[in-house]
Design goal:
CATH class: Alpha Beta
CATH superfamily: Peptide deformylase
Distance between the termini: 24 Å
Strand order of the largest sheet: 1-2-3-6-7
CATH architecture: Alpha-Beta Complex
Number of domains: 1
CATH topology: Peptide Deformylase
């Protein structure tokens, strides 16, 4: 397992670069991300910057989570971007890179994301509920944004026991 970066590591605040070459190095990165997510403490998503790789790559897999929801299984997304969002909902979030804290964060209820797969082919996917929340959380990492930056009130930030 690769080490998952945690605050205050400055790399978590960097903006990631788009992937331009779809090769063995990208496949190796995705494998390392999958392993780190699976061996970590119950994560349902991970972004490349959390492993110190400043590339626009995320994995989302809500089928691993404790929240039963409609989901698309394991999503390996390269150069993802949200092209549509609607509604607002509050929900609790935590993060592998901020392991001691959880908070209530407002996110869109529905999102449509456009991304490339490991071969560079484009896809669009509509997600709702918890899966939409996780996608937004992971895409924030690509721009150096952490969930604690989106907390509405310091009273919503709770230390995990």
């Amino acid at each position: 397992m690769n080490e998952i970066l945690t605050l205050p590591d400055a790399r978590l605040r960097q903006i990631s670069k788009p992937v331009e070459v779809f090769d063995l190095a990208l496949k190796t990165l995705l494998e390392a991300m999958q392993t780190s997510m699976e061996q970590g403490p119950g994560g349902v998503g991970i972004a490349a910057p959390q492993l110190g790789e400043l590339l626009r790559v995320v994995i989302v897999d809500c089928s691993l989570g404790l929240h039963p929801c409609k989901n698309h299984g394991r999503l390996l997304m390269v150069n993802p971007e949200i092209i549509y969002q609607s509604g607002k909902a509050l929900g609790r979030e935590g993060c592998l890179s901020v392991p001691e804290w959880v908070a209530t964060v407002q996110r869109s209820k529905k999102v449509t994301v456009r991304y490339q797969d490991i071969s560079g082919e484009y896809h669009e996917l509509a997600a709702t509920g918890f899966e939409a929340r996780v996608i937004q959380h992971e895409l924030d990492h690509l721009d150096g944004v952490l969930f604690i930056d989106r907390v509405l009130s310091v009273h919503d930030l709770v230390r995990r026991m």
